Queue: 3 jobs
Job 1
Amino acid sequence: MTKSPSPLERKLAMLRMVEDVGEVDEKDKDEEHSQWMGLTLAATDWKVWWLAFALLSQTVSLSFNVYFPTLTATLGFISTTVTLLLTAPPWFFAAFVLFFNAHHADVTKERFWHVSGPILLGIVGFVISLSTMNTAARYIVL
């Protein structure tokens, strides 16, 4: 059982929450900021542009799932049924890897390599799929 915070601890916690929210910002207390100034600050901040580029890249790279049956059809199978059946195993494998990766990240309390690793593996897969016409290699990297 935990004890309640003392009145002094409660007052300190309230002060920290007010400072964290930014209600008492001494630097900007006297200045008025317009929406245009905020837009200008955002447009000139490199981190905003980097985030926009990262989100755009992620959206573009994830759009292949719409064309996944078409990509599978380029492997050379005549039957539409076989092509559509071949689209399922990569998703099952990806779901298994996703759950394993998330569980392992939770157990080890490590996040960076559990996020960066699959992204780097995806980059390698894209490079392999662009650089070979071998059917097995192209199917594996799907």
Note: DSSP finds eight helices and no strands in the chain.
Job 2
Amino acid sequence: MSVGSSARELENLAFQNAISNDEAADVISDVDVMALKDFTEENLRLEQISDQDLCDYFASRKISRETLQRNGVMQTRRDNKMAIAFTYRKDGKIVNCKYRDAQKHFWQEKHGQKIPYGLDDIKEARDIIIVEGEFDKLSLEEAGYRNCISVPDGAPPKVSTKELPPVEQDKKYEFLWNAKEYYEQASRIYLATDADKAGQALAEELARRIGRERCWRVTWPRRSESTKELCKDANEVLIRFGQQALKEAIEGAELYPIQGLFRFKRFYDVIDAYYNLQLRTELGVSTGWTGLDELYRVIPGELTLVTGVPNSGKSEWIDALLCNLNHAEGWPFVLCSMENKVQEHARKLLEKHIKKPFFHAKHGDPIPRISAEDLEQGKQWLNNSFFLIRTETEYVSQMLTKVKRFAQHHDCHVWFVAHPKQLQNWQGGAPSLYDISGSAHFINKCDNGIVVHRNWDPEAGPLGEVQILVRKVRNKIAGNIGNAYLSYDRFLWSSKLFHKFYSSR
């Protein structure tokens, strides 16, 4: 076919190009491409919607015939099957056409212009609504909003982490730049995209290009009072709840959220759950020692810092605490203890769990050692209850930030045992949190700060006394600053491994 082909031949080729770009690709190279850009209802073989199946389909979507006609929604035939044709117009002229068949297959004219659907409806509009699909645009018109456009190519799967490309390279959003002269004078732009992740990503990408300060975010209503699921899009709202609900959603739009800035309304569900104690851990979980619970309880999502001079019982106390929590709550734990050999740490944990010494006790103690049967059951308990990390880290601040983020994200509690820096002038008293090497990082990042100290002076009190000194509590619901005093008996492997003497605040 030559450039001088007849109009009918060009018309036939245009239709072929629309329904099968791949099949026509070889032929198009020999055709005057400019001729194919001059789209009309005639050369695209479009006609007013009359097919009964299509009429019934639009009726089921609550779209009227008047709305279809005003928005240039037509029908065409593909492989002897009827398809919907959404005509994309600029200044009343068709510049592109998007098709949809009964199997939800979409395709567009290969040489059509990239513009939003409904572009002419936002000329000189002060408020503009942007939706994700043509049916949403039609739905909003049913609710009285004509100042609405739809993106032509759907939503991206996620927000790009890259910087915005230059306009000439921003091909995915070429339609938006081609419409800039239409929306740049608008004072408000409502982003009414779908409620799913892709729709949220589209809203963010649009806001990045338009300017967040000009955007308002539309939130669709819940599908029912008994679910938290939102309606997916404008058309679902129209179908489920009618035109008034659609109007209320638009009228209830809020300023597009600035990163890190929220209204309390966003957190109503979280506040309600907290008030009703739905998680059962909001007020903290018992440590297993009543006297200590008055000062310190364990809350998932927090970071507790534990320190003390060498041989003060930090690790023994932490191990006993983990065993208490495992027995009472069934919690599993991840252990990262470089100072403990695996077999030694296993011994300490098994002794606390089984309440017997791992080896034969010295000094004629009558308590028998762990039996072979106990050991097999204990190893299974270890495997089910603990995971091991065998690595080291260097950067305290970065590491603590990641650890705390991990705790919050996974709703778990983290205990971090940190040794104090060398105490050259130590007189035997308990160290403070400020004696930890890199203390500023630890103190600032932790939610709770505990010093474990053992009395070494017989004149100051019982030598077996262990002091649990609570020095920082961020969440005052779960604890207070104060001291608890516990007693340590290595071979009394019971839930009272540490006995309360008294607590003071």
Note: The chain has a mean pLDDT of 84.
Job 3
Amino acid sequence: MRCLSDHSVFVQSFYLDREAGRAPGDGVHKIYPGAYIKVFDLRQCHRQMQQQAAAAQAAVVAGVIPRSGNVGGGSPALGVLAGLGVDDLRRLCIVRLSFVKGWGCDYPRQSIKDTPCWLEVHLHRALQLLDQVLHTLPLQEHTHIL
């Protein structure tokens, strides 16, 4: 991302959180005018999806976390992964931006929806990879993941 504006852009990015050593979704990153910064990495996102889905399934199989049924009446592959929902994994595929005004714990606006101009970018290829990850999880007799 390159900020060509005279004003800062504020970004919520799991990639930037990881690079900054913060908890995922924990912070909003200020991109100064004239700055150029990477805000998303498809390979890292895909690895994270695979790791989180595998860890959640392993926890279910090991009995650490109770198994969950399907959500939304959709495909069984879209079931809840041991307390880690599909929406949690989908958030890895989203970058949120606001222009001029920041939000979150460091700003008076607690939500991006409180900023005058914002957008949410759903990264299509990352969402395709998420679908593949969910559909390639091995079927286990003791789980309802697939």
Note: The CA atoms of residues 102 and 108 lie 8 Å apart.
